[in-house]
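Kindly draft a polypeptide, keeping tokens residue-aligned:

***
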Amino acid sequence: MKPLRIIIFAKAPQAGICKTRLIPALGADGAAMLARRLLDHTLMQAMSAGIGTVELCMTPDDDELWQNVPLPVGIVRSVQGDGDLGQRLARTSQGVIERGETVLLIGTDCPALDAACLRHIASALVEVDAVMVPTADGGYAALGLNHFHQAVFSNIAWSTDSVAFETLCRFGGLGWSVQQLPMLHDVDEPTDLKWLPCSWPEASDA
């Protein structure tokens, strides 16, 4: 079985540059605090899953924005680099797969994407070419790949409700076997705050 690498795509949790759609509900500082909480939660779940190396792929590439974000021991750091989201995802995925690893791409917007779900994805990737965890807004919270093809990421209308469907169509065109896991919810808009764990202070703003 190939080793697996979890790649967490994350934006620096700085006021005014992250979670901007939540600013009307939480304010710039509150949105940044939630972004930091989501990042910490995602890192903890990825490490707790125990399924492979955990790599934080950061943007912006400016180190100063990340200096005050301490990370758990064992986290590998990298930068996303230039290009749109598809180009950055493709470049990162290709590098991992060409090194002989399976790649599991996740973001930090979905608190329900926990260690158990990540382990489920890893188990499914033993049997199929790709695994997707779709989200209610039409995107995906996780994408696991055993192979790379540029078509998976090219000419996708990112941040629209067609992302998951279009990606599945690309898999079909490639003849890849795919497993979809149950749909989860991202937290991007004020109306999404209800999907936060009840113990998180921000959930009271839902």
